[in-house]
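Board notes (copied after class):
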Amino acid sequence: MGFGYGAGAYQQIRSHGGVESADPHGLITLLMDGALERLIKARAHMMRGEVAAKGEAIGRCIEIIGGLRDSLDLKVDPVNTGRLDSLYEYMSRRLLQANLRDDASLIDEVSKLLQQVRDSWVQIAPSATQRAASA
């Protein structure tokens, strides 16, 4: 994954607001929210037979997942970070398959996985005192 993936994902999320004031943890949450939003759109486009719009939404979601992968620091916790990297890679492959096969169940699978990751991520949000101490 190159810088372009992360920058593109950031650019997409920027339009939602809150990026300027978000901490790194918050930015990751915004990226996950953006990916989940695009999965909902992709599924709706798929159900309506809107092939181009479906492909664009899935493509943008894959870019955001690429940005999430780029943000991983394998030095922090190599085992768990490596597992998360593999999960993100798996999600990207499943989305490619969903697009090629026109299979909404694959979008649903990725949505559930990403929602679980997001829910866990939000649970470990740094407290205000931790943020102040590191500043």
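Comment from the instructor: DSSP finds six helices and no strands in the chain. Residues 17 and 45 are 25 Å apart (CA to CA).
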